[in-house]
C-alpha cells in the first residue's frame, strides 16, 4: 500500500512541466517569498465541463530556485462553501504566495475556476480576461445633471454590463470616470471620483516681455508676468519695490505639473549678504573700472559698479557722509550657480 502511494506521487511530479527562471527566495512565516516576478500565468482550463466538479487554475510555484508550472486540476464541489484561489501578491519588492482555501458560506470567490452544478461556485476577484469594449449609451441630456457612463463588471467569473445613471452636477467639481487598469497579470477597477474643477491654463505661457525700467536708488524692479484671466493669457507690467535689509528677491515663475500650469509667487528671503540682492541671469559682469577718488573730509567713497539694463552699463561712484560708529561694506556681484547676484553694500 505504501509503495502504491509513493509511485502515484512520483507520477504526478514527473507529469508537471517546468519553466526555469533563476532568482532568490526565502521562507517567511510559512509563506514563500520570492524576489522575482512570476511569469505570465498559463491558460490551461479544459473546454469540457465536468458535472459536480470545478476547475482550479494552475499556477507558478517556486521550486529549487526556479519557477515551475503546476497544472490546474478538477476539484469536487462542496455545497455551502467558498473556494478562494491561491495567488501571488506583490508586497514592496517581494512576491508572496497566498494559498487557496475553502471558506464557509454560499458561493465561492477567488481564482478563475469553472462552474459545476448545484454546489460551490468559483468567481475571479481579479479578471485575467480583457474587458469588452464599452456599450454605446444614448443618454441625452438633463439640466443640472451629469451622465455617469455604464461599465463592465466582473461577476460570477464573467463580464456583465452595468448601465449608467444620472447624478446631480457639482458647481465646483468635475467627474473623472472610472476605468479598468491592467496590473501585473490581472485587471483592477479604479473607481471614478469627483475632483475640484481646474480653471487654470493647460498650455505654456507666452514668451516673457522685455522690460527696460532703468534703475532707482534703493529700489528693485519686480518683473512683469503673464496672468491667466477669464480663460486667456493677460500681461501684467512690472513694478518697483523698496529694497529690504538683508533680503533678496526670488522672482515668481510658472511651473508645469502634468498638463496644468501653476504660478509660484515670488518672495523675499535672506540674501546671505549685508544688503538686498538682485538676480541677473546673464553673463559675467565686466571688470570694475578704475576711479579717481577726490578727497572729501567727513565723507566715504561708494565705489561705482556695473548694472544690468538689458546690457552691462557702468554706474559711477559717489560720496556719502560718514556715519558715527558705522563702517561701509561695499556691494559686490556674486555667482550663485548659473546666475549672478548683486549684493548691495551696507553700513554695518
What is the count of helical runs?
1
Structural class: mainly beta
- Give the overall average pLDDT: 75
Topology, number of strands: 35
List the uncertain runs: 1-31, 106-124, 272-277
* Domain module tally: 3
Instruction: Output the radius of gyration.
Output: 37 Å
C-alpha geometry = elongated
Largest sheet: 4 strands, antiparallel
Strand percent estimate? 35-45%
Helix content: under 10%
Strand order, main sheet: write it out: 1-2-9-8
Distance between the termini: 102 Å
Short description:
This protein is mostly beta strands and 348 residues long.
What does this protein structure show overall?
- The chain is mainly beta.
- The chain contains one helix and 35 strands.
- A four-stranded antiparallel beta sheet has the order 1-2-9-8, with no helix packed on it. A three-stranded antiparallel beta sheet has the order 27-34-33, with no helix packed on it.
- 12% of the residues are buried.
Amino acid at each position: 500500500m505504501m509503495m502504491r502511494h509513493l509511485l502515484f506521487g512520483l507520477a504526478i511530479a514527473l507529469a508537471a512541466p517546468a519553466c526555469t527562471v533563476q532568482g532568490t527566495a526565502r521562507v517567511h512565516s510559512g509563506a514563500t517569498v520570492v524576489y522575482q516576478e512570476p511569469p505570465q500565468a498559463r491558460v490551461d482550463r479544459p473546454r469540457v465541463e465536468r458535472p459536480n466538479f470545478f476547475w482550479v487554475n494552475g499556477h507558478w510555484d517556486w521550486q529549487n530556485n526556479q519557477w515551475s508550472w503546476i497544472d490546474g486540476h478538477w476539484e469536487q464541489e462542496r455545497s455551502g462553501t467558498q473556494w478562494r484561489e491561491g495567488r501571488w501578491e506583490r508586497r514592496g519588492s517581494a512576491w508572496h504566495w497566498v494559498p487557496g482555501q475553502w471558506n464557509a458560506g454560499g458561493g465561492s470567490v477567488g481564482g478563475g475556476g469553472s462552474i459545476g452544478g448545484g454546489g460551490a461556485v468559483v468567481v475571479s476577484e481579479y479578471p485575467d480576461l480583457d474587458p469588452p469594449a464599452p456599450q454605446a449609451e444614448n443618454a441625452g441630456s438633463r439640466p443640472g445633471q451629469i451622465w455617469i457612463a455604464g461599465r463592465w463588471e466582473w461577476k460570477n467569473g464573467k463580464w456583465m454590463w452595468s448601465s449608467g445613471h444620472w447624478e446631480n452636477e457639482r458647481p465646483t467639481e468635475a467627474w473623472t470616470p472610472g476605468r479598468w487598469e491592467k496590473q501585473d497579470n490581472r485587471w483592477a477597477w479604479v473607481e471614478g471620483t469627483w475632483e475640484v474643477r481646474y480653471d487654470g491654463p493647460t498650455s505654456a505661457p507666452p514668451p516673457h516681455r522685455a522690460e527696460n525700467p532703468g534703475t532707482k536708488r534703493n529700489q528693485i524692479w519686480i518683473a512683469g508676468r503673464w496672468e491667466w484671466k477669464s480663460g486667456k493669457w493677460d500681461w501684467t507690467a512690472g513694478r518697483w519695490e523698496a529694497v529690504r535689509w538683508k533680503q533678496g528677491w526670488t522672482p515668481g515663475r510658472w511651473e508645469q505639473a502634468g498638463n496644468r500650469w501653476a504660478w509660484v509667487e515670488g518672495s523675499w528671503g535672506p540674501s546671505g549678504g549685508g544688503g538686498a540682492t538682485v538676480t541677473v541671469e546673464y553673463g559675467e559682469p565686466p571688470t570694475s573700472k578704475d576711479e579717481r577718488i577726490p578727497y572729501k573730509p567727513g565723507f566715504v567713497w561708494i565705489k561705482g559698479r556695473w548694472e544690468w539694463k538689458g546690457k552691462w552699463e557702468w554706474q559711477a561712484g559717489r560720496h556719502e557722509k560718514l556715519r558715527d560708529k558705522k563702517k561701509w561694506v561695499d556691494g559686490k556681484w556674486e555667482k550663485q550657480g548659473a546666475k549672478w547676484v548683486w549684493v548691495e553694500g551696507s553700513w554695518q
